[in-house]
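Help needed: design a sequence for this.
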């Protein structure tokens, strides 16, 4: 039996910052941001709403959706590059707040690919029969490390959290193939600089992402024994609509078969794929036995993809 997603939840901060709001803060335009990135608005956390607060809310919602109690969780994995502080981990902070008294807990750092890294790590423990239920949370408060005077990066990011509960699902369903990768030689293209701000060589990241996302998506489809014609829905990391479009085109998918949650949320790094998953479930785009491909890339450089047969 495969591990699969049996519950989802998210936390979307209330405050919305539109491209027009950004026009008042820096030399940019709604037209530039929309056409170059696909982003129209993003949600930004309040000063007193830290990463662990968003992670907690998303986790509570996922437990409720899965219909299990916090005590049943064996492991909590939190993917983030913006923890409240380096330690204790966000995972330990929410372990306590949830009352997950039987859970081990740790954070995981793989930038925007962190959610996929979390899913695949959890899959191993479930399929080894080490744990019955694992909570995976992707969460970021990127607004606290964005350089709000740098228009090259400030317009791209948003805050939020997305959580899933993994457990065993019926035969044929669940995470049926995966791929993970890294290339530390590309660390210089995307990192947190000496001022604690996000520093990025947008063009290099763009080239890497276009190359990697399509290829990783094709790899997991093939590993699962399917072809691209079998894919029902694609959820790429929501970083830039042009990068996402290139992945969609390599899979020969029509536009309606790819999530474009980026419009409303921007790039929420480790939360982006999980947030898009919840958004599209709510939009009725995902059905039992659909073949989904989730694919991400991020600073590190890192990447990862999963093929999922949806359903419990
Ligand atoms: N508003 C207006 N103009 C801008 C803005 C802005 N916000 N930002 C840049 N420009 C200008 C540039 O200064 C440049 O002007 P110039 O030609 O006079 O020098 C012009 O627009 C074009 O800049 P480019 O960098 O060529 O723009 P491009 O089309 O490549 O888009 C972008 C830039 C959106 C950053 C793109 O390269 C991209 O998406 N890269 C990948 C980013 C990404 O996915 N990052 C992932 C981070 S995830 C993580 O791990 C945290």
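Sure. Designed sequence:
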């Amino acid at each position: 039996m495969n591990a699969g997603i049996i519950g989802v939840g998210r936390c979307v901060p209330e405050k919305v910052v539109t491209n027009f709001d950004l026009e008042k803060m820096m030399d940019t335009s709604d037209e530039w941001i929309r056409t170059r990135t696909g982003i129209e608005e993003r949600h930004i956390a309040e000063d007193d709403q830290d990463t662990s607060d968003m992670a907690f809310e998303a986790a509570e919602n996922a437990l409720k959706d899965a219909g299990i109690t916090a005590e049943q969780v064996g492991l909590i994995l939190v993917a983030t590059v913006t923890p409240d502080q380096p330690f204790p981990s966000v995972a330990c902070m929410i372990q306590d707040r949830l009352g997950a008294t039987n859970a081990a807990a740790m954070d995981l750092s793989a930038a925007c690919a962190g959610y996929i890294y979390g899913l695949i790590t959890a899959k191993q423990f479930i399929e080894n029969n080490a744990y019955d239920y694992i909570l995976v949370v992707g969460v970021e408060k990127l607004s606290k490390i964005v350089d709000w005077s740098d228009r090259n990066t400030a317009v791209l990011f948003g805050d939020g959290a997305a959580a899933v509960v993994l457990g065993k699902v019926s035969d044929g369903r669940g995470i049926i193939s995966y791929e993970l990768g890294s290339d530390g030689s590309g660390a210089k293209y995307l990192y947190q600089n000496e001022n604690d701000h996000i520093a990025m060589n947008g063009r290099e990241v763009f080239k890497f992402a276009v190359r990697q996302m399509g290829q990783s998506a094709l790899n997991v489809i093939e590993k699962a024994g399917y072809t691209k014609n079998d894919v029902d829905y694609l959820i790429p990391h929501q970083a830039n609509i042009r990068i996402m479009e290139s992945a969609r085109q390599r899979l020969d998918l029509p536009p309606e078969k790819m999530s474009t949650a980026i419009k409303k949320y921007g790039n929420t790094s480790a939360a982006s794929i999980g947030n898009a998953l919840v958004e599209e479930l709510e939009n009725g785009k995902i059905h039992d036995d659909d073949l989904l491909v989730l694919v991400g890339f991020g600073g590190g450089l890192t990447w990862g993809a999963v093929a999922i047969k949806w359903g419990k």
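The two ends are 11 Å apart (CA to CA).
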